[in-house]
Amino acid sequence: GSEPFQHSAVYILRITVPAAEAAALTAITTQTYDSQAQIAIIVAGKTWGVPFTEQPLTNGQFAIRAQDRNQALELQRALLPPG
């Protein structure tokens, strides 16, 4: 048909762990990479993703993809509680 193709928005939250925790993130992701396993991303008791580790994360950063804006905001609120 001649109808325009509609793209849905992609929401990704990028997380940087504190420097003191970067080594632990590297160790965990290296282990899952070496075993070709998946790793669960759990925040506030909710699983946000179970991706395969494509490479060890050595820079203390990772990203979580959200299905929509509301889910991205929910995750952001869980990671950054009012203080």
Please list the strands of the largest sheet in the order they lie side by side: 1-4
Count every beta strand, where a strand is a DSSP E run of 2 or more residues. 4
Order of helices and strands: EHEEEH
Largest sheet: 2 strands, antiparallel
Classify the beta-strand content into a percent band: 15-25%
Mean pLDDT: 88
Number of helices: 2
Unreliable residue stretches:
none
Shape designation: globular
Gyration radius (Cα, Å) is: 16 Å
Bin the helical content. Answer: 25-40%
Which structural class is indicated by helix and strand composition?
alpha+beta
End-to-end gap: 52 Å
Structure description:
With 83 residues, the protein is an alpha+beta fold. Helix content is 33%, strand content 23%. β2 and β3 (46-49) form a beta hairpin. It is globular, with a radius of gyration of 16 Å.
Pick out its properties.
two-stranded antiparallel ribbon; alpha+beta
